[in-house]
Amino acid sequence: MNFLCSWSGGKDSCYAFYKAKLLGYQPTVLLNVMNEYGDRSRSHGIPKEVLRAQADAINLPIHFFNSTWEDYEEKYVKNLKHIAENYPITHTVFGDIDIESHRAWEEKVSVAANLKAVLPLWQGNRKQLVLEMIDAGIEAMIVSCNQVLGKDFLGRTIDKNIISEFESLGVDACGENGEFHTLVINAPFFKNRIPVKIQDTAVSSNYNFANLKLIG
Asked: In this protein, which residues make up the domain named Diphthamide synthase (predicted)?
């Protein structure tokens, strides 16, 4: 029942981690995929130093590897196998909710490494999951978003008020359609809050990104 968590640094992977623990699974190691330069996470654009600070707050090791989208699957399986040889893991935990192709891929790569995929949030109501996450004490801030939201949403905390704003703009409460990504800066199982600030913002491929830096 020891698990590796596919860790984006955002709210869904964090809440899946939290729910897996409640289900009796034992967290053992985190895995994050960086871009081909190794300076930011491929999915959320979060700097490695910030992801390391999260891992330190959880008191778990975090494993990184660099990848392009083209060789993502091959490298993912290779690294899963490597981690499974070095940690006593039996399961992988992912934060997907209802996109069937994502689940199929996660099960495929897990089986390739002789592991079993667990998706604690699967088939949950998207809005209800976010509300539960907030109530559980997970604090997440927006670190990238599309132009429907715009750069003014960067740095804002996911709370019940912002969900109403999302809905008025036709944006999914969970951001499952790629409208925004988050960074968790505090959670019930963190030993400390992540001291991070936004230095500046940038636009790439019509998407807004916050350039993050640890404080102190």
From this structure: 5-213
